[in-house]
């Protein structure tokens, strides 16, 4: 042919060459670890469908956060599981609600060593399991829910959260939370918006982790997004940015890599991807059967999220993979 044959393999010959030329990196600093705290238990409670994860006591939560911090994981996102649930989810904003008690304990122990994020939603706290106030006809009322989200934001900020992360997919939630925070002297508290959050079957294990069953076999399709829609996801993200979000998130992660890449193109804010409970559980289940090398698959999926444009990854693998990467 006259041309030298293109030889891609020259640059793949050794681990050092490959590492030097890697376009994407994965490190403990990329992770946010989701943690659960449950009111009224005397010892951590393993979550069957999320092997390796626990419903923590306040004490074991603080220990786990400290361990993650020492591994170089910069942030946790906290979910509370209250002892009692009611129609409005009032424990979500009670000063003595389990998430607020836990945030104060975390802040006392960790100060600013770790970024404390608080998931901001009502579903863990409502007796019907929806993310907002339910009307007599069973639908979720957007605007009365916004008022309650404002109260939750204040309670979380007052308890020491650095970041609040609204996950309920109500219209206007970022603006409502921003104005509640600013109006009460919490302008420094940031908002990580679950901006493009899909109505996914991959949240199953999470609902075990927070003891949530949606009343009457219902679902969240009237507020979370339809998995068929990509342009709509970009509109959701643009609205959250306009409402004052400091960071935006795509959720779930691996099944929505196209959305993640499109959001990366569209916005300059820090971008997070949530590798959700079902994504973790699938890997763990296959690995437990000896069908997959779980660690290798986890690394491959997590680096794919970075490659697609994520700056941060929320993942139940945070501790395990941070240990591995640090070793
Ligand atoms: C709602 C919320 C959910 C998750 C995070 N925040 C559940 C839902 O929308 O039903 C799911 C996270 C996961 O599956 O890991 N508060």
Number of domains: 1
- Main beta sheet strand tally, sense and closure: 8 strands, parallel, barrel
Bound small molecules, deduplicated: ligand PBG
- The portion of residues assigned to helices is 25-40%
Level-1 CATH class name: Alpha Beta
Q: Give the CATH H-level superfamily.
A: Aldolase class I
Across the major sheet, the strand order is: 1-4-5-8-9-10-11-12
CATH-derived architecture: Alpha-Beta Barrel
CATH topological fold name: TIM Barrel
Quantity of strands, as a count = 12
Overall spatial form: globular
Low-confidence stretches are none
**Order of helices and strands, N to C?**
HEEEHEHEEEHEHEHHEHEHHEH
Q: Decide which structural class fits the backbone.
A: alpha/beta
Gyration radius, to the nearest Å?
A: 20 Å
Brief digest:
The protein has eleven helices and twelve strands. It has 327 residues and is α/β, with parallel strands linked by helices.
Question: Could you explain the architecture of this structure?
Answer:
With 327 residues, the protein is of the alpha/beta class. It has a single domain (25-326), classed as TIM Barrel. Helix content is 39%, strand content 17%. It contains eleven helices and twelve strands. It has helices spanning 15-21, 58-70, 98-110, 142-159, 173-183, 204-209, 231-242, 257-266, 277-288, 294-308, 318-326; strands spanning 31-38, 45-46, 54-56, 75-81, 115-120, 133-134, 140-141, 163-166, 190-197, 247-251, 271-275, 312-315. α5 links the parallel β8 and β9. The longest helix has 18 residues, at 142-159. The mean pLDDT is 97. It binds ligand PBG. Ligand PBG binds next to loops.
């Amino acid at each position: 042919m006259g041309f030298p044959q293109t030889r891609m393999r020259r640059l793949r010959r050794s681990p050092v060459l490959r590492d030097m030329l890697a376009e994407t990196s994965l490190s403990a600093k990329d992770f946010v670890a989701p943690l659960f705290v449950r009111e009224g238990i005397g010892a951590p409670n393993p979550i069957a469908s999320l092997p390796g994860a626990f419903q923590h006591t306040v004490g074991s939560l603080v220990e786990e956060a400290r361990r993650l911090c020492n591994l170089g994981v910069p942030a946790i996102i906290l979910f509370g599981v209250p002892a009692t649930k009611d129609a409005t989810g009032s424990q979500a904003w009670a000063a003595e609600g389990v998430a607020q008690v836990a945030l104060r304990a975390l802040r006392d122990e960790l100060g600013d060593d770790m970024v404390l994020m608080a998931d901001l939603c009502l579903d863990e706290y409502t007796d019907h399991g929806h993310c907002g106030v339910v009307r007599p006809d069973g639908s979720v009322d957007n605007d009365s829910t916004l008022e309650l989200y404002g109260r939750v934001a204040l309670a979380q900020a007052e308890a020491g959260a650095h970041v609040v992360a609204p996950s309920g997919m109500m219209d206007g939630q970022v603006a409502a939370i921003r104005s509640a925070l600013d109006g009460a002297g919490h302008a420094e508290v940031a908002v990580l918006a679950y901006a493009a959050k899909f109505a996914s079957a991959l949240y199953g294990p999470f609902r075990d982790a927070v003891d949530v069953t949606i009343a009457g076999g219902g679902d969240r399709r009237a507020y979370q997004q339809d998995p068929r829609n990509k342009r709509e996801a970009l509109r959701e993200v643009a609205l959250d940015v306009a409402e004052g979000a400091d960071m935006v998130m795509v959720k779930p992660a691996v099944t929505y890599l196209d959305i993640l890449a499109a959001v990366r193109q569209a916005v300059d804010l820090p971008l997070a991807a949530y590798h959700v409970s079902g994504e973790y559980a699938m890997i763990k289940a296959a690995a437990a059967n000896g069908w997959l090398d779980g660690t290798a698959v986890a690394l491959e999926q997590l680096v794919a999220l970075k490659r697609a444009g994520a700056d941060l990854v929320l993942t139940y693998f945070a501790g395990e993979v941070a240990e591995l990467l640090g070793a």
